[in-house]
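Hi everyone,

Forwarding the result from last night's run.
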Amino acid sequence: TANITWSKIGIKYKYRIRQAGQAWNAASPASVYSDAVLTGLQSNKTYFIQVKSLCNGVWSAWSMKYTFKTL
C-alpha cells in the first residue's frame, strides 16, 4: 500500500501509475480528493505516478513523473 498526496489546484483529479518497465495503467476515475491510497503493489518494485487536474472545465496535461519504491 502507498499513500499519495498532491497539491490541490483544481476541482477534480485523475492519476495513473505504472511499474518500471511496464505500460501506464488506465487513469483513475475523476475525484475531488487530492490524495489516494494505492493497493495491490508488488514488494521491492519501482513505480511511477502522474496526476492531472480539471480547472475551468479543461483537463491539464499529465504532471511530471514522480518515482517511489515499495518495501
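The chain has a mean pLDDT of 95.

Cheers,
N.
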